[in-house]
Design a protein that fits this description.
The chain is α/β, with parallel strands linked by helices. The protein has a single domain (3-290), classed as Thiamin diphosphate (ThDP)-binding fold, Pyr/PP domains (Rossmann fold), CATH 3.40.50. The protein has twelve helices and five strands. Strand 2, helix 6 (160-171) and strand 3 (177-183) form a beta-alpha-beta unit. Helix 1 (3-33) crosses helix 4 (79-89) and helix 1 (3-33) runs antiparallel to helix 11. The termini are far apart. The mean pLDDT is 95.
Length: 291
């Protein structure tokens, strides 16, 4: 194995450890809040780890820098994953995570743009791609070189606004726009294909004038290859990432709809943290329980 290959493998392993800690954050945040979307958050973790470590040009010390890259997190109900990586990147204090969904805290159930590092207030799904086109056009008219990224859930691709936006992005030749679809196949209470089928997804984006890449959304090597292709294209690009709700915890993976928005019990938390090899995080729950 060459030196470059060894260094690359070491980076992947570091990102995998980072992803396990983020999953632990998600479990503890939602457990303490008594509500949230752990399964949906889990499917985005590796996608966000790669973005914040390899792609996004942003500075926690200057979150409003006009030359920063923009990340539009359209899949807003998965905000615990985004909050965790922002806190771990230094955008706000780590302890803020555990006031999720409280009156005392600043972190709401859906991400809001008053939080450092968050560009877009989410809520009703299907709007993020339009917003990302706006930031992309903003770079053009202001003659800046920043890029715009948008993370979409596959369920929200059932919204007509998504496809109007897709057509506009190609029409405006926004080559610095990269959309990432978290293709976990499950929405609120049913499989996406049973609610309203969106396949063949790659063919649809291609027909709308986009460059298309596909990857395993839980494998960093696969994600890296997809970004390499997307960044070399002279079109707006979409990365369709095949993912799994609850990825990393066996019982959450088996019952993906059951853990879409279900907080784990105390016993389930212990089992999940053990499977993730982050048992040390149990001490945080014990501290809360003992006051």
């Amino acid at each position: 194995m060459s030196r470059h290959e060894r260094e690359t493998r070491t980076s992947y392993e570091a990102y995998e450890r980072h992803a396990r800690e983020i999953r632990a954050d998600i479990l503890l945040m939602t457990y303490r809040a008594g509500s949230g979307h752990p399964g949906s958050s889990f499917s985005t973790v590796e996608l966000l780890v790669w973005l914040y470590n390899e792609e996004l040009r942003i500075d926690p010390g200057s979150p409003d820098d006009p030359d920063r890259d923009r990340l539009i997190f359209s899949k807003g109900h998965a905000s615990p994953a985004l909050y965790s990586i922002l806190a771990r990147s230094g955008f706000f204090d780590f302890e803020e995570l555990f006031d999720l969904r409280t009156l005392e805290g600043c972190l709401q159930g859906h991400a809001t743009a008053d939080i450092p590092g968050i560009e877009f207030t989410s809520g009703s799904l299907g709007q993020g791609l339009s917003f990302a086109i706006g930031t992309g056009l903003g770079a053009t008219v202001s003659d800046r070189q920043y890029r715009s990224f948008v993370v979409l859930g596959d369920g929200e691709l059932q919204e007509g606004q998504i496809w109007e936006a897709a057509m506009s992005a190609a029409d405006r030749e926004l080559s610095d726009l990269i959309a990432v679809v978290d293709r976990n196949g499950v929405q609120n209470d049913a499989p996406v294909a049973e609610t309203k089928a969106i396949s063949p997804l790659a063919s649809k984006f291609d027909a709308f004038g986009w460059h298309v890449e596909q990857c395993n959304g839980h494998d960093f090597e696969s994600i890296e290859r997809a970004y390499s292709g997307a960044k070399s294209a002279e079109l707006p690009s979409v990365i369709i990432a095949e993912t799994q709700k609850g990825n990393g915890v066996s019982f959450m993976q088996r019952d993906q709809m059951g853990y879409h928005a279900t907080v784990l019990s105390r016993d389930e938390i212990e089992t999940a943290l053990t499977e993730l090899n982050v048992e040390h995080r149990l001490t945080e729950i014990e501290r809360w329980e003992t006051g």
